[in-house]
Write a structure and sequence with these properties.
Shape: globular
Order of helices and strands: EEHEEEEEEEEH
Mean pLDDT: 90
Structural class: mainly beta
Radius of gyration: 15 Å
Helix content: 10-25%
Length: about 130
């Protein structure tokens, strides 16, 4: 619990998506040392589907054979990327919502205990 960032609730409307990305902080990015200083590297993600879109909105992993997890209320996908560090096979994307909307809760876990309740605000300020 103490290593988890604040829970994020995301809503994707018609046509909205999230392009392929990693959730860990890229070691090559100059802002990474500042983010790591807050609680170390991110090491895992949990995506919980809060509803079932009418069509579309899956989570796909292009580097893992285009594995796609279809969003269904109550389903969750958990993936870890610390071993090897960072595991680039966890590249993932939220596919476009084709009909309806998609709601998810996202939880990121860090290697170390988080300090304080304002981590998300500090991360956004560092972006």
């Amino acid at each position: 619990v103490e290593n988890g960032e604040n829970l994020q609730i995301l809503r994707y409307g018609l046509g909205q998506q999230y392009k392929p990305h990693h959730d860990f902080f890229d070691p090559a990015d100059p802002s990474t040392p500042k983010s790591l200083g807050l609680a170390g590297q991110r090491c895992a993600t949990m995506v919980i589907y809060l509803n079932t879109p009418k069509r579309g909105g899956g989570t796909t992993f292009p580097e893992a054979g285009n594995l796609t997890v279809e969003p269904k209320k109550g389903r969750a996908v958990f993936f870890s990327y610390c071993v090897p560090s960072p595991d680039r096979l966890t590249l993932h994307a939220a596919r476009p919502v084709l009909e309806g909307e998609k709601w998810v809760a996202v939880k990121w876990l860090r290697r170390q205990r988080l300090q304080g309740d304002h981590l998300v605000a500090r991360l956004q300020a560092n972006a």
